[in-house]
User: Fold this.
Amino acid sequence: QVQLVESGGGLVQPGGSLRLSCAASGSIRSISGMGWHRQAPGKQRDLKRDLVAIITSGGVTSYEDSVKGRFTISRDSAKNTVYLQMDSLKPEDTAVYYCAAGITSVRGEFRNYWGKGTLVTVSS
Assistant:
């Protein structure tokens, strides 16, 4: 059984910062890419449109245009954890943020796993 658990969401004022964490646990052999998606209130989930940032096992990163220069994704492979440092937050960043990871289990089975999400609200 593999689980992803996010933490770090909350209410922040515009211009503020938050750091999200996502820890993977369970019967894990290896983790390839890890990333963050978000779903804004009232919008349908679209995995492609709502990708915020990804990081490969080698540390290569990629960001959605609207967060470039403001968000930073990183990972601690020893802890099976991915982080999202969010600075200069804007009201339009308000969303539920989901962690995702490509994980190979100890049985050798690969699949994408998702966390349950953590709410980030940017408001004064």
